[in-house]
Amino acid sequence: MAETVRPIVTIGLLDNDEFSLAFLERAISELMPEARVLWKTVSGRDAVARCLDAQRSPNVLLTDMSMDELSGLVVCRTIRVQTARVMILAVTSFSLAVYASKAAEAGAQGIVPKSVEAPIVDAIRAVAAGGTWGEGFQTSSEAHQRLSGRRLPRQFLLSDREAEAMNLCSRGLGTEQIAGEMQVSVSTAKTYLTRAIHKLGVNSRGQAVALWTGAAEDER
């Protein structure tokens, strides 16, 4: 009897750890013959742009929750506000209880531990088929309907250069170091940071970093 061939599932991977990206890609390629990794990235902004592009969007996005740039929660919500097309599966190295309810609220379809291969594959198959993985999660259509019409997180109001400045600031770099990394003058670096703080609707760099990384909630 011929073996049933599953339809192709396309996948995007987001994690700021290159080793985690390699682990996920290997696990998927070895355990999911019906899957194909379209792309992988360490940038939340890049992942959002790809997921919202009909030519590059995967069936399923796997996103880490804790990242240096934008948090996985911001990525989830930004995508889900705008589309139900991409299913989102959160992955984390922390206890699932830390992020499960927040990931569900942000529009993800499930959450799995990052280091265990079999549950990741089972979860991908479940959400790719239009279902959910874990308690309290909604399908992509249900989550999009709930979030549709809400404002995008303020993190996505920033220009690419302002975002770059905030990424460096969130790594603990001072203004002169940021200027050096961006190859601009110190006054220009200050301008990028000032604009970013204003657009984020906060009053200090510390508050901006907390909002940028997802450590603080966007209460708008």
Features:
about 220 residues; alpha/beta; Rossmann fold; Arc Repressor Mutant, subunit A; 2 domains; five-stranded parallel β-sheet; globular; Sig_transdc_resp-reg_receiver; phosphoprotein
**CATH T-level topology of the largest domain:** Rossmann fold
Termini separation: 58 Å
Count of individual domains: 2
Q: Helix/strand-derived class?
A: alpha/beta
Poorly predicted segments: none
Q: Which range best describes the helical content: under 10%, 10-25%, 25-40%, 40-55%, 55-70% or over 70%? A: 40-55%
For CATH, the homologous superfamily of the largest domain is named as Response regulator
Question: How would you describe the shape?
Answer: globular
Number of helices: 10
The biggest sheet, with number of strands, parallel, antiparallel or mixed sense and barrel status, is: 5 strands, parallel
Mean pLDDT: 90
Which H/E pattern describes the elements? EHEHEHEHEHHHHHH
For the secondary structure, the number of strands is 5
Rg of Cα set: 18 Å
- Main CATH class of the largest domain: Alpha Beta
Question: What CATH architecture of the largest domain would you give?
Answer: 3-Layer(aba) Sandwich
- Amount of beta strand: 5-15%
Across the major sheet, the strand order is 2-1-3-4-5
GO molecular function: DNA binding
Keywords: DNA-binding, Phosphoprotein
InterPro entries: CheY-like_superfamily (IPR011006), Sig_transdc_resp-reg_C-effctor (IPR016032), Sig_transdc_resp-reg_receiver (IPR001789), Tscrpt_reg_LuxR_C (IPR000792), WalR-like (IPR039420)
Pfam families: GerE, Response_reg
